[in-house]
Amino acid sequence: MGTAVQLEEKREEKADRLARARRALGAAELSAARWGGRIDRTALRESPTASESPTGPEGAAGPEGAAVRAPMRLLPPPGRPDAPGRAPAPPADDPVEVAPAQAPGRLPVPPALAPLIPSGTLRAGSSVAVTGEASSSLLLALAVAAMGEDSWCAVAGMPDLGLRGLLDAGADPSRLAIVPGTDVEDLPQLPQVLSALVDGVGVVVIGPDLRLTPALWRTLTGRARTRDALVLAASPPDRADLRLEAHGARWHGLGAGSGRLRGRRVRVSSAGRGIAGRREVEVLLPDVRGALATTPAARGAREASVLPTLRRAV
């Protein structure tokens, strides 16, 4: 009985958060329409599971005995277990890293970044600032890990977002909301939209092109603490609970006149509450699968370099 009540409460809470997200994007739609823009809201439609659907799973007979097809779903990104025609699994010596289970009120991070963070997880309601090289890729890797299996993610201030790379990293496109506009001139209701998204979405990503005032940043982080939302921002105007800096990026995979880029090594350091001293790790961002991974202990690939050119005297 208790389990059924908990499931019902979780379902109601999820529906309430989704409704708040819809209202926030509705306000963004009205503003974007004035500038000739449009927001695709198809991802905000709930897709019932086979147990919740009145028609049952695909191929089940309807009330008139006719076959009823299950609702259409967005195709998962390549490499996911349920993707048709997926790529073969990686070899045993290059396993896919899986984040360990987290305690209530904690959000997972990519396993390669766990040594940088106290307890190896992020607290729901906290804020994370990301700076330096590859900051956008690092932001998205953190967001994909924190989304988990059921959380929504809203991305603002990244007009040139590479959705293909986001899907390769494992993001579910049916739980993504992209907010147009980078300042109040483009979107007059931007402060209200961001506040509503923090209220209704589990993970909010603020890109480097979004110009926030210190007052608005403090408002967003305060609301995030109340709503248990995670705010990930590139170079915010004020302090955050955790600060990650990426530096020393090096691409590898090229040989002496041959080969292809197979990944990028980046050093990531952390500072913030509960962190004594300086913590730093080297990660692959991205690796050959497009995700964030731990740097292998030994790898034969050579670093990309510029070879000297010999010129013949005339």
Automatic annotation (TrEMBL):
Q: Where is the composition biased (Pro residues)?
A: 74-93
Q: Where is this region: Disordered?
A: 30-103
Bias regions of kind Low complexity — which residues? 56-67
Its recorded name reads Uncharacterized protein
